[in-house]
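Key result, reporting period 2: structure in, sequence out.
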């Protein structure tokens, strides 16, 4: 389970980090399974793999935006100013505490999912 653990001082709460990693890993796996259940099971299929890859890249891009916006917030209770570009209102789903200017936890989260 070492891949699911966040390291370093940038994470305020290890349990929050572990929770957010598992949440995002499950979310990305669910999205991948919905795009192509056959490919998600590890088999080759005739669907459009480029389309699935593009959708997953967009999901990763949204995660990047969410983590960047979390860093910009001054507190965990601050409401997002733009709910379209920053739809995450529960700070517990991200490993980055609000206002903590460190990209370490975010990079570790992205690498694990």
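The corresponding designed sequence is given below.
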């Amino acid at each position: 389970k070492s891949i699911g653990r966040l390291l370093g001082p940038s994470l305020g709460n290890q349990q929050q980090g572990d929770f957010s990693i598992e949440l995002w890993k499950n979310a990305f796996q669910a999205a991948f399974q919905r795009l192509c259940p056959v490919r998600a099971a590890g088999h080759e299929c005739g669907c459009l793999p480029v389309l699935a890859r593009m959708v997953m890249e967009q999901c990763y891009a949204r995660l990047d935006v969410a983590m960047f916006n979390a860093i910009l917030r001054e507190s965990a209770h601050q409401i997002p100013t733009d709910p379209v570009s920053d739809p995450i209102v529960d700070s517990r789903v991200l490993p980055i505490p609000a206002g903590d200017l460190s990209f370490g936890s975010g990079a570790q989260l992205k690498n694990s999912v």
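Residues 8-112 form one domain. Residues 49-72 form the longest helix (24 residues). This case is discussed further under Risks and Mitigation.
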